[in-house]
Amino acid sequence: MAEINFDHFLAVDIRVGTVIKAEPFPEARKPAIKLWIDFGSEIGEKKSSAQITDFYNVEKLKGKQVMGVVNFPPRQIGPFMSEVLVLGFMDKSGSVILAVPDKPAPDGSSLC
Fold it and tell me: What is the distance between the alpha carbons of residues 24 and 47, in angstroms, rounded to a whole number?
């Protein structure tokens, strides 16, 4: 990876939000789940398509806090407009493990 300076890092707006709704996304090319995430009063509710089906299901995601990049442009994923990049890490098999705070944080809080 190329080295970046601190200003580049500051340009990425990473916030915490709470999943308020989750639905299967069978139309996606790769298995995914549609998420509606509350990022607090400043940002509001945003949608995301997340390829997290190996470890997560729609029933367990509601109420879960996740981290996401909120200042990328929206991206059309099939019939769904994804507005946020939900963050995670790949395990050895390529399955995504969500990046989450280890204690509750106010929705909309910035990564610092």
Answer: 13
User: What's the CATH code of the domain at 28?
Assistant: 2.40.50.140
CB distance 55 to 96 below 8 Å: yes
The reply to whether 7 falls in a domain is no
CA 44, chain centre distance (Å): 14
CB neighbours (10 Å) of residue 65?
20
In a domain, 20, yes or no: yes
**9-38 pLDDT tens trace:** 999 999 999 999 999 999 999 999 999 999
Tell me, yes or no, whether 31 lies in a domain. Answer: yes
Contacts of 24 (CB under 8 A, 6+ apart): 33, 34, 58
Cα 83 from chain centre: 9
pTM of the prediction? 0.94
The number of distinct structural domains making up the chain is: 1
- The set of residues, in sequence order, having a beta carbon less than 8 Å from that of 5 and lying 6+ positions away, is none
**Is 107 among the domain residues?**
no
- pLDDT under 50: residue ranges of the chain: none
